[in-house]
Specification:
The complex is a heterodimer of chains A (448) and B (158).
Chain A lengths: L1 H21 L17 H4 L4 H10 L4 H4 L5 E6 L11 H20 L2 E6 L5 H11 L5 E4 L6 H12 L4 E3 H21 L8 E4 L3 H12 L7 E5 L2 E2 L7 H7 L1 H9 L9 H5 L4 E4 L20 E5 L9 H6 L2 E6 L14 H10 L7 H18 L15 H15 L9 H24 L13
Parallel strand pairs in A: 1-2, 1-3, 3-4, 5-6, 5-8, 8-9, 9-10
Antiparallel strand pairs in A: 6-7
Helix pairs in contact in A: 5-14, 5-17, 6-7, 8-9, 8-15, 10-11, 14-16, 15-16, 16-17
Chain B lengths: L4 E5 L5 H16 L11 H14 L3 E8 L2 E12 L7 E10 L8 H15 L4 E4 L6 H9 L15
Parallel strand pairs in B: 4-5
Antiparallel strand pairs in B: 1-2, 2-3, 3-4
The chains are: A alpha/beta (448), B alpha+beta (158).
C-alpha cells in the first residue's frame, strides 16, 4: 500500500522536524514551591539532611519522603528497537522518551528514559541492580529475544521493586483483554478454544504463557515459528532447550495432538489466530483463514502493517478481527496496559507485578468494554477512553493486596480515587503549561 | 517410574528408532563444541554402529518404550581396563531421552536398570562419556554419584 508508505515517510519527517525544535520530549520540573532562595534551606541543605537521616534509619522511607514512589526507569540496551533491530542505546532514546511521555500522560508515572551500553546480560543485570535505590519500578524495553526472557526472569528475582518487560507482558495483557471479549462474543469457552500463535518471539511466547495462566488449555494451543509448528519431537528441540528454554517449554506443553507442518495445518479447526510475526501485507496466505472454525477470531498484531489486511481476514470468514493499529477497529495496544499496571503497582507499593496482576488488568479492560457494549468492532477500549486507566490501576493494586504483594494496603475505591487524581493532575499540569506558553504549541501536520 | 513406560533390550526392528535418537544426541552434542560437528554420512554411520552393537556380546542397548514408541535409549558395553583395577568397566556411550519425557525421573530409572545389566555382565565400575560443556549431563551424573576421572582435550592441527 503506497498510501501507507507515504504517510509513514511524512510522519518520519515531521518527527525529525519537531525533534530539532523541542530537543527532547520530557524535562524535569519542580513540584515544590520556591518563593526565594531561603526556601532551599528546606528543600536542600541544611534541612534536607534531616530527611536523609530518616531514610538512613529506614530505607523504605525513600518511598514516602522522595519521589521514588512514583518514579520508574525505562531501561533498554537498544538491541531490538521497534522493528528496527539492534540500533544501539543512543538511537533508542527517542523511543524511550516517547514511552516516558505516555507513562506520564496516561498513567501519571514519572518515567526516566535510561538506554544503557552493555555487552553482556550480567552487565545488564548489574546496572539495573545498581540503580534500584533510585526507582519505584523498572520497565524493560526493546531488548532482543531470547535475551529478554532471561533478563526479565533474573531481574524480577533480584529486585524488590516491580519489574516489567513491556514487549512481553504489555502485549500479552492487551491481547488477553481483547481475546476475553472476542470469545465471549462468539459464545465459546476458554477451555475449548483452539488457538494458533503465529510467530514465537517475545510477545507471543509471553502471550501464550499468560493465556495458560488465565485458564486456556495449553494442549489446544499451537505455536509456529519461522521453521513451522512447534512440537516436542521437532528436530531442533535440543538446540532450543539450550538457546531458548522459554520456547522449548511451550513446545512441550502445547500441541497435544502433535500437529506438524505450517500455518495452514495449524489453522484447521482453529478458533483463534494470534499473529505477531512480521509486517504484512501478505505475510501469509489470506486463504488459510478459510480452514478455521466458524466464528473465528483473528488478531493481526504486526506493526506498522498487519500480517494481512483486516478486511481480507473478514472476506475469508473471520468473525472478529483485531490489529495493532488505531485506524482499524479493535486496536490491541500495550498503551492500554502499561501506564495503569504501573499506576496500580506503584500506588500499592507492590513488590512485583505478577501474572495474576496482569490478568486482573486484562479482565478489567475487558469488563469496561463489556459494560459499554461489545460488538465485532468493539472488543477492547480505545486509548482515548481515559476513564479506563484508573479502573485498571485499581484492579491491579487490589490484586497485589490479595496476593500479599502490596505494602500500601487500601480498598479498590481508594486506589481508584488516587489513580484518577494522579492521572488527572498530570493532564492538568500539561494543559496548564501549554496554556501559559511554557510548552510551545507548534504542532502542525502540514509543516513538512 | 512414569506410567506406561517400560524398559527392554533393543531388537532388530528397533534399529530405525534407535538411529534417530542417537542422531538427535549427536546433533545436541554439536551445540557444545565446534569439534563435535556431525559428519555428512551420520545416518549410514549410525546405522552401521547400532547394527554392530546389537551383534556384539559385550554391548547392549536398552530402550524405554511408551505407546509402542521408543522415547529413550541407553547404549552400554562391558570392557576390560588394561592398566587399572577394578578391571571391568561398564561404559555408557549413548544416552538420550525425548524432550517431553524429561524431568520425570526416567533418566535415573533407565540408568539404574542399565547398571544392573552391566553388573550382571561382570562390570565393577560404570563410566559415561559426554561433551565437557554439557552442563545438564554433568549435573545429572554428579547427582547419580559420578565424578570426572579422565578428560579428553582437543585442538586442530595447523
Amino acid at each position: 500500500m503506497t498510501i501507507d508508505k507515504d504517510e509513514t515517510t511524512k510522519l518520519y519527517e515531521l518527527s525529525i522536524y519537531y525533534s530539532k525544535i523541542y530537543r527532547g520530549k520530557i524535562s524535569i520540573i519542580p513540584k515544590v514551591p520556591i518563593r526565594n532562595l531561603n526556601d532551599f534551606s528546606i528543600w536542600y541543605t541544611p534541612g534536607v539532611a534531616g530527611v536523609s537521616l530518616e531514610i538512613a534509619k529506614n530505607k523504605e522511607k525513600s518511598f514516602d519522603l522522595t519521589g521514588r514512589w512514583n518514579t520508574i526507569a525505562i531501561v533498554t540496551d537498544g538491541t531490538r528497537v521497534l522493528g528496527l533491530g539492534n540500533i544501539g542505546p543512543e538511537a533508542s532514546m527517542p523511543v524511550m522518551e516517547g514511552k516516558a511521555l505516555i507513562f506520564k500522560y496516561l498513567g501519571g508515572v514519572d518515567a526516566i528514559p535510561l538506554p544503557i551500553k552493555v555487552d553482556t546480560v550480567d552487565q545488564f543485570v548489574n546496572v539495573v541492580k545498581a540503580v534500584e535505590p533510585s526507582f519505584g519500578g523498572i520497565n524493560l524495553e526493546d531488548i532482543e529475544s531470547p535475551k529478554c526472557f532471561y533478563l526479565l526472569d533474573t531481574i524480577r528475582k533480584e529486585l524488590n521493586i516491580p519489574v516489567w518487560h513491556d514487549d512481553q507482558q504489555g502485549t500479552a495483557g492487551a491481547t488477553l483483554a481483547g481475546a476475553l471479549n472476542a470469545i465471549k462474543l462468539v459464545g465459546k469457552s476458554l477451555k475449548d478454544i483452539k488457538i494458533v500463535f503465529y510467530g514465537a518471539g517475545a510477545s507471543n511466547i509471553a502471550t501464550a504463557n499468560l493465556f495458560i495462566n488465565a485458564g486456556f488449555d495449553a494442549g489446544k494451543m499451537i505455536l509456529i515459528d519461522s521453521k513451522g509448528i512447534l512440537h516436542p519431537e521437532r528436530e531442533d528441540m535440543d538446540k532450543l532447550m539450550l538457546n531458548n528454554p522459554w520456547k522449548y517449554e511451550l513446545s512441550i506443553k502445547t500441541n497435544k495432538y502433535r500437529i506438524k507442518g505450517g500455518l495452514k495445518e495449524a489453522l484447521e479447526d482453529a478458533d483463534m489466530l494470534v499473529a505477531a510475526s512480521k509486517p504484512g501485507p501478505n505475510a501469509f496466505k489470506k486463504e488459510y483463514i478459510k480452514v478455521m472454525n466458524n466464528d473465528s477470531i483473528v488478531f493481526l498484531l504486526a506493526n506498522p502493517i498487519p500480517e494481512i489486511w483486516p478486511w481480507e481476514a473478514k472476506e475469508m470468514g473471520a468473525k472478529i478481527v483485531a490489529t495493532g493499529r488505531s485506524d482499524f477497529p479493535n486496536q490491541i495496544n500495550n498503551s492500554l496496559i502499561f501506564p495503569s499496571v504501573f499506576r496500580g503497582a506503584l500506588d500499592a507499593k507492590s513488590k512485583k507485578i505478577s501474572d495474576e496482576m496482569i490478568i486482573a488488568a486484562s479482565k478489567e479492560l475487558a469488563k469496561y468494554a463489556e459494560e459499554k457494549g461489545i460488538n465485532e468492532n468493539y472488543i477492547i477500549p480505545s486509548m482515548d477512553e481515559w476513564q479506563v486507566y484508573p479502573r485498571v490501576a485499581a484492579a491491579v493494586a487490589s490484586k497485589a493486596v490479595e496476593q500479599g504483594l502490596a505494602r500500601e494496603i487500601m480498598s479498590w475505591n481508594e486506589y481508584y480515587e488516587i489513580a484518577k487524581k494522579i492521572i488527572q493532575e498530570s493532564r492538568v499540569s500539561l494543559n496548564t503549561l501549554i496554556e501559559k506558553g511554557v510548552i510551545r504549541n507548534l504542532l502542525n501536520y502540514n509543516s513538512v | 517410574m512414569e506410567k506406561g513406560i517400560k524398559f527392554r533390550e533393543a531388537k532388530e526392528e528397533d534399529i530405525e528408532s534407535i538411529v534417530e535418537l542417537v542422531i538427535r544426541l549427536k546433533r545436541l552434542n554439536e551445540e557444545f563444541d565446534a569439534l563435535l560437528k556431525v559428519r555428512e554420512d551420520i545416518v549410514e554411520q549410525t546405522k552401521l554402529y547400532i547394527k554392530n552393537s546389537l551383534k556384539s556380546d559385550n554391548s547392549f542397548i536398552v530402550v524405554a518404550e511408551y505407546n509402542k514408541k521408543i522415547v529413550g535409549i541407553l547404549k552400554a558395553e562391558v570392557r576390560e581396563r588394561l592398566f587399572y583395577s577394578p578391571t571391568k568397566e561398564g561404559f555408557i556411550s549413548e544416552f538420550y531421552i525425548m524432550p517431553e519425557f524429561r524431568r520425570k525421573g526416567l533418566g535415573k530409572d533407565l540408568l539404574k536398570y542399565s547398571i544392573e545389566k552391566l553388573k550382571d555382565k561382570g562390570a565393577e565400575i560404570v563410566t559415561a562419556e559426554f561433551p565437557t560443556q554439557n552442563k545438564i549431563a554433568t549435573d545429572f551424573y554428579a547427582k547419580q554419584g559420578f565424578r570426572s576421572v579422565i578428560s579428553i582435550h582437543a585442538r586442530y592441527i595447523d
